[in-house]
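>> received
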Amino acid sequence: MLKRFAIYGTIGWGMEIFWTGLGSLFMGNWELPGHTYIWMFPIYGLAVFLEPVQNKIEYLPWYLRGTIWAVIIFSLEYLTGGILIGLLGECPWDYSNSTFYHVQGIIRLDYFPVWFVVGLLFERIHDNIDEYKI
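>> returned
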């Protein structure tokens, strides 16, 4: 389980750096700087505890599974953001000034399609980890 935690944490970091680098491109910065936070590694690593969820919903159509993943990811983002606010006094990500579609600056409702796709990608990653018996 520890290896899988590390795999999910590392993949999450990579995806976030790619995503923020892509965002830099849209802001006109051709250097494409991407970033993440140390806090995100254990948060992404928590995906290891979602593996049983995939096993329970794998029979559902892809559009229902994607919706379930988006809701789960929103819930975890809100929960972990709230915990970080309690521990640090702030959340490393703050969507308050970047979109109207936020909830307390912790989650962006307009990211629903992103989390939908990320959830379905998670399924493929999980399947590959299982295939290689990690």
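>> The first helix runs from residue 2 to 26.
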